[in-house]
Amino acid sequence: MRVNAQAPGQGSWCVVKPGTPIQQLLKNINYVCSKINCDILSNRSSCYSSLNLYNLASVSMNLYYQSQERQFSTCDFGGSGLISVTDPSCGCCIYEFHK
């Protein structure tokens, strides 16, 4: 039996699990960007940071997760994804969320 711990209308985002190896981050970004539009990762966007691969991976993984109607299985990414019920947006980098 599957239990959904989220309250109706509560948000959820897919982010990188702490400690994920860099190789897996790159694999996740490449996978997502082969499936959906990753313009938000371009060097002109507010979410771009060449110094923060964890943020780039989280943004891309969340884009994919949101595009797949927030199905928990679409945030696995080989065990490197984590569902967050706290909005990970920071500064001007707003993580997408679909109700």
UniProtKB/TrEMBL annotation:
Q: Which Pfam families match?
A: X8
Membrane topology field: Lipid-anchor; GPI-anchor
Recorded protein name is X8 domain
Q: What species is this protein from?
A: Arabidopsis suecica
Q: Where in the cell is it found?
A: Cell membrane
Enumerate the UniProt keywords alphabetically. Glycoprotein, GPI-anchor, Lipoprotein, Membrane, Signal
One annotated Gene Ontology cellular component of this protein: side of membrane
Q: Where are the transmembrane segments?
A: none
Which PANTHER family does the entry link to? BETA-1,3 GLUCANASE, CARBOHYDRATE-BINDING X8 DOMAIN SUPERFAMILY PROTEIN
